Amino acid sequence: MSTTVDTTCYLNGQFLPLSAARISPLDRGFLFADGAYEVIPVYSRYPFRCEEHLRRLQDSLDGIRLANPLSIAQWQAVIAQIIEAAPFADQSLYLQVTRGADTKRDQPFPAVPPTVFAFTAALTRPSDEMRRSGIAAITLPDIRWGRCDLKTVALLPNILARQQAVDAGCTESILIREGFLTEGSASNIFIVRKGIILAPPKDHHMLPGTTYDLVLELAARHGAAHEVRPVTEAELRDADEVWMTSSTKEVLAVTTLDGQPVGHGADAGRPGPVGRQMLAWYVDFREQQMRHGRG
Ligand code: PDD
């Protein structure tokens, strides 16, 4: 997300310029990373699958035992106003709820109102060069906790993994837990083997991505062979194709893994045919559906 303009944000019931928003240093989001968030892609001012994102926010809040301060209708009203106020049509909308600001730093839940924050930024999609060549990734052990299905703001292990990728001149890190692929530091990961798209099943070790869902829907709709099942580290390393998916990266080929080209034969180290087809379906869906508030 990049913010080059002072967009209107929402903070605890008020709409105000992002540069004017203030929270307490005793906010538990700041002190303990005690909160949950969402990122919703917005195309031509239509938030994509807003209700699904709000449902995932509800699941995250339920998972950390934090009452949702807004109803679906209230969230939708906040989202609509922020989207409308922004000077750009394609956006990356961010929502966050924390357990609020107490008068002291103490772990048990305080009896204070939550902090509710939302802002938007221009959506930055992958560059043409990233699309043409794919990106490089490294693998790392997944050292995160046992509830990676909750979208909490406690992202330090993700951040450290991502920075390790950046330090190695790469874009993403792909996480391995006990010999199985889980996900990327900020994305879900698919592989292709012998023409079959393989996706790790949703469980507590990965975020249930909205893009992950859409990719599997597109595979089903277009009759592309796919299986949802655990993917081993060995299968990842020997894959014909590896892709990362997220609301902002859409479907992006990983063409180098730990310094080795991904794939075999003529397509090794280049975006493969199954991924190129999936991206074409995705782009078509984005332009025909998402951009018109459908899908
Ligand atoms: N992250 N897994 C992780 C750990 C993520 O952080 C994300 C997205 C995803 C993909 O989810 P979706 O398809 O719903 O975007 C998977 C967002 C973009 C972020 O934190 O900025």
Question: Can you describe what's shown?
Answer:
The chain is of the alpha+beta class. It has two domains: 8-122, D-amino Acid Aminotransferase, Chain A, domain 1; 128-291, Alpha-Beta Barrel (D-amino Acid Aminotransferase, Chain A, domain 2), CATH 3.20.10. It contains eight helices and 15 strands. The chain has helices at 28-32, 50-63, 72-85, 128-133, 156-167, 210-221, 233-237, 273-288, and strands at 8-11, 14-17, 35-43, 46-47, 91-98, 115-122, 135-141, 172-177, 180-184, 188-193, 196-199, 226-228, 241-246, 250-257, 260-261. Strands 7, 8, 9, 10, 11, 12, 13, 14 and 15 form a nine-stranded mixed β-sheet that branches. Strands 2-1-6-5-3-4 form a six-stranded antiparallel β-sheet. Strand 10 (188-193) and strand 11 form a beta hairpin. The longest helix is centred in the C-terminal third of the chain and has 16 residues, at 273-288. The model has no long low-confidence stretch (mean pLDDT 97). It binds N-(5'-phosphopyridoxyl)-D-alanine. N-(5'-phosphopyridoxyl)-D-alanine is lined by residues 39, 158, 183, 186-188, 207, 209-212, 245-248.
For the termini, the CA-CA separation is 24 Å
Number of domains: 2
Helix content: 25-40%
Secondary structure tally, helices: 8
How big is the Rg? 19 Å
Characterize the main sheet: 9 strands, mixed
CATH-defined topology of the largest domain: D-amino Acid Aminotransferase, Chain A, domain 2
Indicate the low-confidence ranges by residue numbers: none
Helix/strand order: EEHEEHHEEHEHEEEEHEHEEEH
Mean pLDDT: 97
The CATH C-level name of the largest domain is Alpha Beta
Strand content: 25-35%
- Bulk shape: globular
Number of β-strand runs: 15
Structural class: alpha+beta
- CATH homologous superfamily grouping of the largest domain: D-amino Acid Aminotransferase, subunit A, domain 2
Can you name the CATH architecture of the largest domain? Alpha-Beta Barrel
Bound molecules: N-(5'-phosphopyridoxyl)-D-alanine
Keywords: Pyridoxal phosphate
Catalytic activity: L-leucine + 2-oxoglutarate = 4-methyl-2-oxopentanoate + L-glutamate; L-valine + 2-oxoglutarate = 3-methyl-2-oxobutanoate + L-glutamate; L-isoleucine + 2-oxoglutarate = (S)-3-methyl-2-oxopentanoate + L-glutamate
Cofactor: pyridoxal 5'-phosphate
Function: Acts on leucine, isoleucine and valine.
